[in-house]
Amino acid sequence: MASDPYTYWTTLSDHELTVDNVTYTLGLVPNDLWVVAAASDRVVDVVEVQRTLLEIGIARTDAALKRSQEVASSSHVAQALVPAEDGPVKMSEDVTGGGSVSDMLHAYFEAAPQDAQLCNLRATLLHRLDRLNTFVEISRCAPPPDSRDNLEDEVEEWEDDPWANETADSSMDVKTKLWEQFPIPLSAFLVEDLYQISCQLASWQWFDAVQTLQTRHRLILWPLRLAILDSVPEHVHPTNFREILPEFDVSLNSEPELAGRPWRIEDDWSELGWVQTVLKNIPSVDLVGYWRAESTLNHCISRSLLTANDLSKWYKSRVDKIINATGLIDIALATIQYGASQGIPDLDEIGEELSLLSRLVYDTPRGPDVDDDWTLYRWSSMEPSAVVRAYLAHSTSESISKDISRLVLPYLFVLESRAERGGTPDPELPNRLLYEYILSAPLEIAAGIFEASKPTLPMSQRLIKDDQDIARLALACLYGSDSLDEWSTMSRIFECLPAWDIPQDEDNDEDVADTTISSLGAFVIPSKDHPRSTPFDLLVFFKPLPIASLSRALDILDVHLESGEILSRWSVPAPLHWFLQSNGDIKEQRAWANRMARRAGGSNDQLDSKEDWEWLLEDMLKLTGKGDTGLPGAFGLLSRDDVLQLFLSGVLSTGRFDIAKDILCSSSHKFSMDVWKIEDICLECSREFYDNAQSGNYKFGDLKLAYDCLDVPQLSERIVREKEFIEATSRISSFNVFSRPGIPISPIEIRLTSDRLSLISRVLSSNNDAYKHSEVILDLAHKLGYRDDVVAEVKTLAMLADTALQVEDFSYAFELSERMVERVGNLRNTSSPDDARTTEASEVCWVACFQLGRQPEFEDVDKKLSLLGQALELCPPEKLHDILSSWSRLAKKDVYLRKERLLSTNEKGIAASASRERTFVPGNVASSLRARLQEFHMPSPPLLSTPDAAALASRTFRSVTANFPFSVGRGSQASDRAGSRASSLFRGDGEDVSAQATRVFNKGIGWLIGADDG
């Protein structure tokens, strides 16, 4: 040991202190103040050492305490206290009595500052000793290490159970906390603020420790009890810290005051308030103890007891914090239930709300991905109907009845009770909310509710107890649904409905049915203001109906369900309200029957045999008839013939022509139809295939179906024409005719072409050599619908001739023109001249002849004269001048050419003809012809334009055409004659040229110079 205890004490560290060295070292120091200061300065974590320090320090303050008490207890002071050089303080003779105890003590502490400091440090050491005792008491709760290990094993087992009770888990958490080592070291526990320590322990769930602190240090912590409770985590169950929760005394209408158990029954003299006040006013005393650290909180804390209203507000506030922080409704409910069990008022209603909310959070079926954040505010702001939907949001048809019984009905009972308590009773409230849910629920869920409400069940087990309400709800749900694939569910609902024994009135029964159906149909028909009838709207309609009408409505529903199942079987389902809407609409029924016949053979229903199609026909006919109740089916407005026609159209639309033939040829009495109706249907279907065809080739695709469809009925003129038109379409497509650049013409474009002869023109314009195949082109025109149409044939020939003319194939153009002239001549011979068709054909013919006849590149003058002659014969009077002008110019050229040829022939043939006899031709023949031509006077064009002149010219022209060197109606002879005409004019053994020319001229234009027709 060092030579002096002061030095030795300062060299010792806190962990080196022991009970022995503390007792021995401090015992060697005579100065009480130094020893007490040393004891208060050292704070260690070893309980025994710390207790020794505190006890030594307190013991060394006893003398100072005794002196201070003697001063305070003196009845009078005769002498002032003056310090002696050595020894205790002595009284001063200058001081007189008469002051208060506090003043005397203050004077004493100023005169004896060491005693003031010792008294101050005594209070601090006493408070630390109390804390030390509290620490030891709390620490005693910790079990020995072996027990702690066993508890950990048990906790691990319990954590494996996912269904363990929340309360049990929370309790075990608390016990585990208590059995662990105390989390605050002794050194900190002795000097830190008790309020902060309590809050820290509360947040760590050391609730027994908090209770011990509040009991042992009541005066300090009682005013702060609510602040300490706020440090408890929100997820902790209230039963775990119920010992520190506020309680309520009904007799006091407030909380009872906590009965503390301090370590010392009476405070030490140095801890008295007035003594501490005196010490506070001594400058030499530094209040570093508990007074300054903990008394600063007291100025803002109310020490009064909490009233019932204060406690109710605190519990409600605690619930809000729990729900907002954790969302644990069960913890919030348990908190409210504990408060209500203490008799705290105004907690019943919020407890009721939390109880209902806890059912929603914990008892309702959960979806796969549920992440609902439920709060009391959200719950309180919800409408009752929304709450019912939330309760049953994840229910199934199997669980719906139980969920309603255990979740919804209690909630509805609470609502009804509240309405009664509020003075506004509403006995219909539970049924109204339940019915609203049923009307908005899916059919599968509704079926589960109806099954739990069957009339055959005991009344106590039924969810819906009124039979009429069941019928009305079922009718509203079914007719208000848009479902197309829940027919089995609808049938389940129908089987749950009541059956009333209503007397049948034969006279009035059918009228009631018609009236009910008509009223329903009118009600559900969409309008601008009422686009759709919801189940709620339909319930309004069904609510006033009596039992008889309801029973009839159920009969109607039965028929409609059967019809709906039939339609669904053939892939044309309709919602139930469609049967009401179409009840009086034959167009709608016909449209749906057509869909049924046409979609039955689609991808969903492969009907491969005659029997399958006959099954379809049987169902369609069933929908047109009436059942046992006398109510019409879905197609009640259609006749048997209507259904047969639609059925045949449907078979043909699928391309199953073999089945169609089998059905038509069958000896069964099911299918009997007039031949002309069958023909109409086949033509209509064929044209439908045709119009939908993308390709013009009738060997495949829709056009093939259109062609093959015409093999089903018996062959007739209309069938032949339609076939020929399809063949013509295919031929046009083979010529690569385009509707737009790069896009081949489609069959629908061909059908929609108003002038189908224009298609011939497009064929000729798109193919350079097409005109050479005149018979193919003419056959194409015939198949386009112009068979036996002479005018169309003439036009076709004219187009062929024009095409040949464009490519300068004049010979072929002449041949086509002659055929055209022949066809026109035959037409004129067999019809009236004023006939429009004759006029049209003549117009086409003379224009074609005139065009070719005046073509400069066409060098055959004789053929051109023949063509112009034909044009003169066929043209209208007003065109004579133009044609005659061209003909006269060509005739002059012909005369000139003949003259040249005659002269050339005469010069070459003098020697050869010397031995042959021939008639001499006078030399003045040509001059004579020219003279006569010069004397020929043509009327002026204005004269020809007058009506009289035109009529005269026309009449005269018709009389003289027979003398022309060609004749209408003798095309082949004219052609032969035209081919040999030049050679015959120059035969040496014939008439002389001049005589022949004169005779031709006289016959051709003799009428102009007054010659007779004979």
The major pleated sheet works out as:
2 strands, antiparallel
Which structural class fits the helix and strand makeup? mainly alpha
Mean pLDDT: 79
Low-confidence stretches: 75-98, 143-180, 289-300, 913-1014
Word description of this protein:
The protein is mainly α and 1014 residues long. Helix content is 63%, strand content 1%. The chain is built from 50 helices and four strands. Strands 1-2 form a two-stranded antiparallel ribbon. The chain has a two-stranded antiparallel ribbon with strand order 3-4. Strand 3 (738-740) and strand 4 form a beta hairpin. It is elongated. The model is unreliable at 75-98, 143-180, 289-300 and 913-1014 (pLDDT under 50).
Helix-strand blueprint:
Layout: H1 5-11, H2 19-27, H3 32-41, H4 47-59, H5 62-73, E1 82-83, E2 89-90, H6 101-111, H7 113-139, H8 145-159, H9 166-179, H10 186-191, H11 194-203, H12 207-216, H13 218-221, H14 225-229, H15 273-280, H16 290-294, H17 308-325, H18 329-341, H19 348-363, H20 376-380, H21 384-391, H22 400-421, H23 429-440, H24 443-451, H25 467-479, H26 487-495, H27 506-524, H28 535-542, H29 547-569, H30 576-581, H31 586-599, H32 610-624, H33 640-653, H34 657-665, H35 675-692, H36 701-709, H37 717-734, E3 738-740, E4 743-744, H38 747-752, H39 757-766, H40 774-786, H41 790-806, H42 810-830, H43 836-853, H44 861-874, H45 880-913, H46 924-935, H47 941-944, H48 947-960, H49 971-985, H50 993-1005
Antiparallel strand pairs: 1-2, 3-4
Helix pairs in contact: 2-4, 3-4, 3-7, 4-7, 5-6, 5-7, 6-7, 6-15, 7-12, 8-9, 11-12, 17-18, 18-19, 21-23, 22-23, 24-26, 25-28, 25-29, 26-29, 27-29, 31-33, 32-33, 33-35, 35-36, 37-40, 39-41, 40-41, 41-42, 41-43, 42-43, 43-44, 44-45
